[in-house]
Amino acid sequence: AENVNLEKIKTLQDRYKVSVGFSDHTQGWESAVQAVTLGARVVEKHFTLDKNLPGPDHWFSSDYQEFKDLVNQIIIADIALIESSRFIKVLHRSSR
Q1: Which pLDDT value is given to residue 94?
Q2: Which of 77, 79, 45 is nearest to 64 (CA)?
Q3: Is the CB of residue 22 less than 8 Å from the CB of residue 44?
Q4: Of 73, 45, 74, 43, which Cα lies nearest the Cα of 61?
Q5: I need a labelling partner for 29 at 20 to 30 A (CA). Which of 13, 37, 68, 78 fits?
Q6: b/e for 31-46, b at 16 or more Cβ within 10 A?
Q7: d(CA 41, CA 49)
Q8: Rounded distance, CA 38 to CA 60, Å?
Q9: Element counts in the chain: helices (H) and strands (E)
Q10: What percentage of the chain exceeds 90 in pLDDT?
Q11: Distance between CA 86 and CA 31 in Å, rounded?
Q12: pLDDT for position 31
């Protein structure tokens, strides 16, 4: 997942005060999950029924199982972010 420029998500959000999406052309789900944890609100990912089909996009497209894994990992990351935010608030309150 090199050359993905995930750090640009925050840059675009801060500079333009807009929701930012991520157009993912990498293999696997990791870059998309990282993008969501950095603030991406929309993820575009190619879908294929068979990665071995001819054509320029099938090799990096996600199949059914990868999409299922992607959704599950985004849910897990989202829960972790919510829980860490709650934990930080509790720590802040207890330090007063």
Answers
A1: 64
A2: 45
A3: yes
A4: 45
A5: 13
A6: bbbbbbbeebeebebe
A7: 25
A8: 22
A9: 3, 2
A10: 75
A11: 25
A12: 96
